[in-house]
Write a structure and sequence with these properties.
Number of domains: 2
Structural class: mainly alpha
Order of helices and strands: HEEEHHHHHHH
Helix content: 55-70%
Strand content: 5-15%
Number of strands: 3
Radius of gyration: 35 Å
Strand order of the largest sheet: 1-2-3
Largest sheet: 3 strands, antiparallel
C-alpha cells in the first residue's frame, strides 16, 4: 500500500463509517449451527445477522471482523485528533519561530547611512565620493562576498557581517 492509496482509502472509510452500523457482535445460529456476525438495529434493538463465520476462521480474524466498526471509529477519532494536534503544533511553531535575520537588507540599509560610510572611511579605507554603491562595494570586498545575498545564505559570511556591524556600533559609541 502506498500513501496516496491509503489517503484515498481513509476518506472512503470515513464516509462509510457515517452510514454503517455502530457496532457488530458475534452470535451463533443454533438452528443452522453457524457462527455469525450480527448488527443491532439502533431503533428496535433487534439483532440481525450480516455475515457467516466459517469454521476455518481463526479467533483473531473473527475478533477483527466482529469489532471492525468500533476499531475503525477509534482509529478515525485518533487520526482526526492527531491531525488537529499537528495543525495546532505547526501553528504554535510558526508563531514561535522568529523570522531569520535578513542580513542582506540590513547591510544594504547600513551602506546608505552617513555614519556607516564615515566608519568605513576611517577604519577601512573607503575613498570619496562616499556613495551608497562605493560603500556596498567596499563591504562586499571586506566580507569576501560577491553579493549581499550571501549574508543570508552563508553562515560564515553572516558572522563576518555581524562582526563588522559590532565594530561599527563600538566605533559609533566611542567616536
Amino acid at each position: 500500500m502506498n500513501l496516496d492509496f491509503a489517503k484515498e482509502t481513509y476518506l472512503d472509510a470515513r464516509q462509510l463509517l457515517g452510514t454503517s452500523s455502530e457496532e457488530w457482535c458475534e452470535s451463533y445460529d443454533v438452528e443452522n449451527g453457524r457462527a455469525e456476525i450480527c448488527t443491532k438495529e439502533p431503533t428496535t434493538g433487534e439483532i440481525e445477522p450480516i455475515a457467516l463465520l466459517l469454521p476455518p476462521c481463526r479467533y483473531e480474524d473473527r475478533r477483527l471482523m466482529t469489532h471492525a466498526p468500533t476499531y475503525m471509529r477509534a482509529m478515525d477519532l485518533l487520526l482526526r485528533h492527531s491531525f488537529n494536534e499537528i495543525r495546532e503544533l505547526r501553528r504554535q511553531l510558526a508563531q514561535r519561530s522568529p523570522k531569520p535575520k535578513d542580513f542582506a537588507a540590513e547591510c544594504a540599509m547600513k551602506c546608505t547611512e552617513i555614519g556607516f560610510k564615515k566608519f568605513l572611511e576611517e577604519k577601512h579605507g573607503l575613498e570619496a565620493p562616499f556613495t551608497n554603491e562605493r560603500a556596498a562595494t567596499r563591504v562586499r570586498s571586506m566580507l569576501a562576498i560577491s553579493s549581499r545575498k550571501e549574508l543570508n545564505d552563508d553562515p560564515a559570511a553572516a558572522e563576518r557581517w555581524k562582526s563588522l556591524r559590532s565594530a561599527f556600533e563600538a566605533w559609533r559609541q566611542h567616536g
